[in-house]
Amino acid sequence: VEDTNIHSVSELLRSVGSVPIPPYLDRDAEASDEHAYNNVYASGEGSVAAPTAGLHFTDPLLAKIGQDNISYLSLHVGAGTFKPVVAEDVRDHAMHGETFVVSVGELQRIIESLESRKRIVVVGTTSSRTLESLYWCGAVINDKSHAETISGRTSLMIFSGYKFRVVEDLITNFHAPDSTLMLLVSAFLGNPEKVRSVYENAQDRGYRFLSYGDACYFS
Q1: Which residues fall within 8 angstroms of residue 169, CB to CB, at 6 or more apart?
Q2: CATH at residue 24
Q3: What pTM did the predictor assign?
Q4: Which of 41, 119, 154, 198 is the most exposed, fewest CB within 10 Å of its CB?
Q5: Mean pLDDT of 155-163
Q6: 74 near 101, Cβ under 8 Å?
Q7: Three-state secondary-structure class, residue 217
C-alpha cells in the first residue's frame, strides 16, 4: 500500500516510529515522551537520544542566563551512548562515533573565552566529548575561513588520566555504571572514589538517576 502523503524518510519515521527512549527505562514510549524527552532548544533531526542534562533547561531559565552567554552546537547522539563497557581494559572498548556540527562563529567564541580565561560550563557528557574534540578543530579555522560551519564525527573516549582542554565546569545527570559517560565523569573528578562518594550521597538523599533524573554540577 502506498501512502502518497509521505514524501521523505523523516516523515516515514514519524508515521511508523516512536520516540527512542533509553532501553533501561524498560517500557514503550508514551505520548508525553515526545515533549519530555527533548530539549527546548533542540533543532534539526538525527539523534536517537536526547542530551539529558539539557532537559533541566527551560525557556525562562535560558532567558535568565542570557543568550549572549550561551553557545550552541548540534550533536547527533547515537545509540552507542547506551552501550556498556564490558572490556576488562577500557582502552579495548569499541567507542561509538557521533556526528557534530558547530558554526565557525560559535567555535571562535569558545576559543576567545578560553583565551580570556572565562569559565566554560558544559551541559552534558556528550557535549563535553564534542567540545574536547573541537579543541583540535581550532587550528583549522583559518583553513576554512570561507565556511560557516564545521562538521565532523568524533569517537573520542575520555577516561581516567585524560586532561580536559575546554571543559571547566560540568552539568550532568547521574549515569549508569560501566558506561562511557561514567568514565568521563570519573576522569573529570580525577578520582573514582570521589565518584563513589557523590553517588552514595545522591542515593542517601533520594536523588533520581538516569535520563529523567536529577542533575549535578561538578567544578
Answers
A1: 119, 120, 121, 122, 217, 218, 219
A2: 3.40.1780
A3: 0.86
A4: 119
A5: 93
A6: yes
A7: strand
In a domain, 64, yes or no: no
- Compute the chain's Rg from CA coordinates: 18
User: How many folded domains does the chain comprise?
Assistant: 1
Q: Going by DSSP bridges, is the β-strand pair 215-218/149-154 parallel, antiparallel, or unpaired? A: unpaired
Indicate the angle between helix axes 180-189 and 125-134, nearest 10 degrees: 70
User: In terms of residue numbers, what domain contains 154?
Assistant: 11-50+69-218
- Cβ burial 18-41 (10 Å sphere, 16+ → b, else e): ebbbbeeeeeeeeeebeeebebee
Residues 179-218 pLDDT 10s: 999 999 999 999 889 999 999 999 999 999 998 999 999 9
Q: What does 74-111 look like in DSSP terms, one character per residue? A: EEE--GGGG-B---SSGGGS----EEEEEEHHHHHHHH
d(CA 208, CA 201): 12
Contacts of 189 (CB under 8 A, 6+ apart): 195, 198, 218
